[in-house]
């Protein structure tokens, strides 16, 4: 496995993630939401029109609870002759109206819910404008001023826009398209984004197509982000987070250079880094490293497969008014560096590990689903007595139980016990629907090793 950080930009779970179907969501084979075993009184609604979708009662209960996805296996009959992105009425097995959804012709997810209950729902510009303004009001309420220039403005289903997310980087918006159904409404949405979120700054809007999963090699294979509206962005510019400055590129094929969803994880690291020898694995552009340096870590060592990631870290340090050489930069495979540290008896008080969900570089492969235990074991050998691991997992298909189990197993193989002492997750500009457990894809755990 290589320390490459060319990874999936942070995002809502993919439409067709295999393991997700094993858990209790709409269309899955698990139990139903507690307390919803019976239809509520007066639940009957007129039957849906002929071309609508009918779902099993199990799925209907999850839809009533708020789950935004209906998997193909949850449909009572196939949907045929329906255009991608068409608005489809959804009903339970008895014909009771549940709401409206966008149709996806391919992949595990067949329908993405747009609205519930309202028989007069119309997916038009006025509806979209109301949702854009509601999303903006949510950020105005919960996003601190120090993050306003680098924040998520629309977070998919939670903000009423299935298969789509919008991030702000300075005066530019970066739209992520995660589902083909987005094409059915994107042309109507872009002018509204320009009107409500861009006009004041005079910036521009870019689009990254994420309907195909990102892999490590995509930084060379994918085209740059597509310019949709407004002015064009420079190759790189600075944005601020909590008083630190980071260079970003909204036209980049994969990642602009700063993962906005890990903000609370970076804050957690800064609280525990003072005075510690810190190792930062899969360091990418150094956002976590900058927090450790500012906190007063006695030394910070970054490991990443890409030399250009270390170069960007030095630029970020300089932009933030810190010594650009404050971090030791090691290029190459994470496992090989960890083994060298072990052989040389080099130890660290705090190890930060934020691997990609999946990567293949020069024949070495890492999978978050399969290799976290091996990674934890290798790390545990270089953690000083009483030291800590800050373990980050952003794979949607890796559950919290699987993540912690793998860490515990790996640490015990190394003769170390691991205990969770702090944890965090997505910040408030990444809201998650209550009945959508898959939406909580980011896991950040601080563990103390015995």
Write the layout of secondary structure elements.
Layout: E1 53-54, H1 57-65, E2 69-71, E3 87-91, E4 97-103, E5 109-116, H2 125-142, E6 150-155, E7 164-169, E8 172-177, H3 186-198, E9 204-209, H4 218-221, E10 226-230, E11 237-241, E12 244-248, H5 263-272, E13 277-281, H6 287-295, E14 299-304, H7 307-319, E15 327-331, H8 334-343, E16 348-353, E17 358-361, E18 364-367, H9 368-380, E19 383-393, H10 400-413, E20 418-424, E21 443-449
Parallel strand pairs: 1-3, 8-9, 13-14, 13-16, 14-15, 16-19
Antiparallel strand pairs: 2-5, 3-4, 4-5, 6-7, 7-8, 9-10, 11-12, 17-18, 19-21, 20-21
Helix pairs in contact: 2-3, 5-6, 9-10
Describe this structure as you would to a colleague.
The chain is an alpha/beta fold and 450 residues long. It folds into 3 domains: 18-116, Archaeosine Trna-guanine Transglycosylase, Chain: A, domain 4 (Roll), CATH 2.30.130.10; 125-239, Transcription Regulator spoIIAA (2-Layer Sandwich), CATH 3.30.750; 259-449, Vaccinia Virus protein VP39 (Rossmann fold), CATH 3.40.50. It has helices at residues 57-65, 125-142, 186-198, 218-221, 263-272, 287-295, 307-319, 334-343, 368-380, 400-413; strands at residues 53-54, 69-71, 87-91, 97-103, 109-116, 150-155, 164-169, 172-177, 204-209, 226-230, 237-241, 244-248, 277-281, 299-304, 327-331, 348-353, 358-361, 364-367, 383-393, 418-424, 443-449. Strands 15-14-13-16-19-21-20 form a 7-stranded mixed sheet, with helices on both faces. Helix 5 (263-272) packs parallel to helix 6 (287-295).
